[in-house]
Amino acid sequence: MTEHFNKHKKAYLLYGGLVLAFLFVLSIAMLIQDGAPYKPTALSFSILGMDLEIQWYAIFILTGISLGAVLAYNEFKHLGLDPDVLYDALLWSVPLAIVGSRLYYVIFDPTPNYNSFMDVINLTRGGLSIHGAVITTVIVLLIFSKLKKFSFWLLVDVAAPGFLVGQIIGRWGNFMNQEAYGPIIESDFWINAMPAFIRNQMFIDGVYRTPTFLLEGMWNFVGLVLILILRRMRLFRAGGLIGVYLMWYGLGRGAIIEPLRTQGAEGDALRIFGAPVNVYLSLTLFMLGGLAIVLLKTVFAKPEDPYYVDIGKITEGPSSDEA
Hints:
single chain
C-alpha cells in the first residue's frame, strides 16, 4: 500500500487538492449563511456610490475554471510540453468562452427580455450556457493552434478533463440559485435519500424538486474518472479523448438531464421554435460528433498519428498535425 502511494503520490496530492479546494468553497458558501434556502449573493458592497454584488454562481464558475486550468497545467508538465502554450491558450479561450456562453444563452432563451445591449451583456441577470462555452472554446483553440502551429487535437484532449471539472463545480452555482432542477419528487424514499442541505435547497414553491444539477455533476464525475483512466492507456490517438468527452457529455445531457429540466422551472431549458435545443444539440453535435472523432482517431487513424499516451515520449515535442 505504501509503495503504491509513493508511486502515485503526485496524482493523489493533485486530485485530493482539487477536491479539497472545491469542498472549501462549497463549505464557505453554506457556513456563512443561516441555512437553506441559501442566498445567491456572496458579497454586496459599494464603490464610488455604485452598489455591486458578487454572486456565488460566478465564484463557482471561476473556481471550476481555475481548477480545470490546474489540471491542464499538470498534464502539460507530465507530457513535457511548454506551459507557456497553455497560458496563451487560456488567455484566448477563457474570456471568449464566457462571451460565447452568454451569447448562446441569449439566442435560445425561451423567455427573452432584453431591451438593450446592456441587458445582453449583464451577467448579473443570470444566463450562461455550457454548450456555448464548449463550442466557443473548441473554435478558439482551433484558431489558436493554427497560429501557434501546435497540435489542435492535443490541446482539446488536454482540455477535456478541464471541461468536466468546470461543469461539475459550476453546477453548484445553479444549486445556490435554486435553478437547473427537474420535476416534482413524489417518492418519500427519494426525498429522504437526498442529503439534508440539498433537500432543503430543492424545496421550491412548496414542493421538492429533482436536483438535476447534482445528477449532471455525478454523471460528469464518472466521465472525468473514465477519461483520466483512458488517457494513461494506449487506446486513442491524439484527439480521441475529446471524442470520448463529447460522447459522454452529449449522452448524459441529451438523454437524461435536459429532458428532466424541461419538466422543471418554466423557461429553464433553452429552446428553439419551442423545442429543447440542448437535447438535440447534445445528441447530434456532441454525441454523434464525438463518435465520429473516436472513429477517426481509432479505426481510420493514420499510422503516423501519435497515441496520446506516447506524446510525452516524443522528444521533438507534439506534432503540428492538421485539425
